[in-house]
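Support reply, case 0932

Customer input (verbatim):
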Amino acid sequence: MRRFCLAFLLLATPAFAQPDRYELGRRVIAFEKAWDEKADDAAAKKRAAPIVNKAVQSLFRLNLSGASKFIDEARNALDGAEPALASVRWAEALQIVPESRVVDSTVDDVTVAVKAFYKIDGDAPKAAIARAKLGAGKPVEVVLDKLPATIRVPVKSVPGTPSADFTLVVEIVVDGKVLARKETRVSRIEKFEERLAAVKKASADVPKPPTTIEQATFLLIVKQLESLAKKNVPETDLPASRLIFGAERLSKIKEPYYIPTRPGEFWLSIPTGKTSTVVRIRIPTKLEERKTPVPVLFALHGIGGSENMFFDSYGNGIVPRLATERGWIVVAPKVELLLGSGPAPKVPEILAELAKRYPIDLKRVYLVGHSMGAGHAMQLAQKDPDRYAAIAALGGGGKVAKADSLKGRFFVGCGKMDVALNGAKALHTSLVEAKLPVIFKEYDDIEHLLIVREAAADVFKLFDDARPK
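Our regenerated output:
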């Protein structure tokens, strides 16, 4: 079966610079939010889906800017059949690039570049300005008479604690009307270099390989902070001020830190044998007060993806959102893979470690995978059929070799416009031939990028119905 990237944020081949991946990811997220707002508007979705398919095809050709242009067009198509005004298209083509995502609290301002991410037909509108503001700080403006333009945005004077994570907002304005709004994150950290040096020094004392979640996660956070200090662009917006605080805590504590009384969303590194596996995890509130164990859902990303996809993209984070509404733990492991398929993530090992910390119902372990992740879900189910109560394969799958050994309940979903449709049908056929309980559904006007959002409600109905008697 043909393998490919699931979403534009994901593709991690050398052909794509990380800043471009980040920028494209922001546009995908904006589109998915707009798609959510039009959830009940069949005509709007029908207009947008073919344009999204063009974006996917553009990505297959490694044309990142072309994919971005199409995804912006698809977002505009949700609002109406007529193309957006030329001035709006020009504004939407722009991107904002801070010189650094982390600045010391003593720094007066940060320089932000405003430039075109892709080309559009037509000239720039006259008297266009960029209006920028960091958090609740003072707004500043620059005339966009030529590109690229730079704007110095105040940092030191922004109200708040010395160390804080702020949203940088840049509005593109013409004649008093906001044509586009750009957002990213910039963190202000007190004594950043000094504190980073201290945690980096402490990390040298961590056993190699690390033996606890705290040790492995400490090394991960230090690595993330070092990358930010080098002015590298992260794949997603990282809360650097929270991370530096977390690194300082982990450098000193000896007892378990990630426990039921500490809810929230974390990037963890979990020892899984000779190596560790990075996951993004969400722990529900008041977990320690639960009288019964809670289900856990593992969300498996596709080729070129990461632990961030199910949280940041994939239907505007609909899978973690639905899991949170139910009070479940949700875990998205990272597969260190660029191109091609390979072994599934070490879900059993991750589960074993998490079960030592959290009250997990081992009879309600669920898998949802997209594209390559769908194949990984089926690998895991075949290898350990008694472990998973229900499995959902979206936008992928393929015929399975050991279907007669499988247990549990299955959902196979795919868009009718998806190039993975034949693979999904093959998986469904394999499960039917093995006389397994399986639901198969094709979605009208849906292609590879949109299937997770459209199938999510059906997937969670399966999970809800799979509660052990």
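We compared this against your earlier run and they match. Two observations from our side: The CA atoms of residues 9 and 25 lie 4 Å apart. The mean pLDDT is 92. Please reopen the case if you see a mismatch on your end.
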